[in-house]
Design a protein that fits this description.
alpha/beta; Rossmann fold; 2 domains; five-stranded parallel sheet; four-stranded parallel sheet; 10 helices; binds aspartic acid
């Protein structure tokens, strides 16, 4: 695996290998030293968990870590992004962790030839993909439920604008999980084959092992949304949360919009911080894999 652009390009074996490696990192069985590798983080959109867990992972695998500052870079002087990356490869960068608002840019960039070989790792592209989030979500689910193929997940909220939903669905489908999406029409997005769509919360929650809430992506929505209506019909509360359901959220949470605040005190919600923790091991495994593909 030279790049990680999306989930669609991974086989189930590759996904399981990344998870197995992440588990070895988590248990401390696997140690690596990528002291000859240079990894640069380029974030064109805001981030807390993804950026810092990549940085933590980079420290833990002992590579040399760089942070690209968009605001003080020559991109602000009008430099084309391909030229910037070509120069980064000439300077000696071996891998780029990139978050960008454009759905396809990272895929296009990964197909080009550079001064020296360089790997791309997608840390979130527009509304299209967030592969490391899907891998850490799967890792979190798999650690709890050994046979995921017998389990049902309900993804709730702004599916249309969520790259997390797209990548999670692509991954969980590969492992034959039953996937339900619960959303009002205006958030359901393009219907994905093999996914069951619900507009009624009670119906969707009547039979589910996992509930994954999504943030309403206000920064990507132009049309008017009736938040009161959304909260009334789709907010997850202590009352409507099924007793044994595993509650997930990729973060950041809009408290009292997709989740009522008191839900965060329940045992069900402990998973949310475990997702953040597991992100470090998954990102260690992904970076280790792409760097090894370059012999580093
Ligand atoms: N942090 C996730 C992402 O970057 C989820 C979100 O922002 O809602 O897509």
């Amino acid at each position: 695996m030279k790049h990680l652009i999306d989930i669609e390009s991974l086989t189930t074996d590759e996904i399981n290998q990344i998870c197995a490696k992440a588990l070895d990192f988590e248990k401390g069985i696997r140690k690596t030293n990528h002291q000859n590798a240079n990894v640069i983080n380029m974030f064109f959109e805001n981030s807390t968990r993804t950026r810092l867990s990549f940085e933590m992972a980079e420290n833990k695998i002992n590579c040399n870590k760089f942070n690209f500052s968009i605001d003080t870079s020559s991109i602000n002087k009008g430099e084309d992004i391909f030229d910037t990356i070509n120069n980064l490869s000439a300077i000696g960068m071996n891998a780029i962790v990139m978050r960008h608002w454009d759905n396809d840019l990272i895929k296009e960039l990964s197909k080009k030839r550079y001064f020296q070989e360089i790997s791309f790792v997608n840390a979130g592209s527009g509304t299209s993909a967030h592969p490391t989030q899907a891998l850490l979500d799967y890792y979190t689910i798999k650690k709890h439920f050994l046979d995921v193929s017998k389990k049902t997940i309900t993804i709730v909220g702004d599916i249309a604008h969520s790259r997390v939903a797209k990548s999670d669905i692509a991954l969980l489908k590969k492992f034959n999980m039953r996937i339900k999406c619960l959303a009002p029409e205006y958030f359901a997005g393009e219907k994905i084959e093999g996914v069951e769509y619900y507009t009624d919360l009670k119906e969707a929650f009547s039979d589910t092992d996992i509930i994954m809430a999504l943030r309403i992506q206000k920064e990507r929505i132009q049309e008017h949304i009736d938040f009161d209506d959304y909260i009334k019909n789709y907010q997850i509360t202590k009352e409507n949360l099924p007793y044994a359901a595993f509650l997930m959220h990729p973060g950041p949470i809009n408290k009292n919009i997709e989740l009522r605040e008191d839900v965060l005190e329940t045992q069900n919600a402990r998973t949310i911080l475990n997702q953040a923790k597991n992100g470090v091991y998954i990102r260690m495994a992904v970076l280790d894999t792409v760097l090894i593909s370059q012999g580093l």
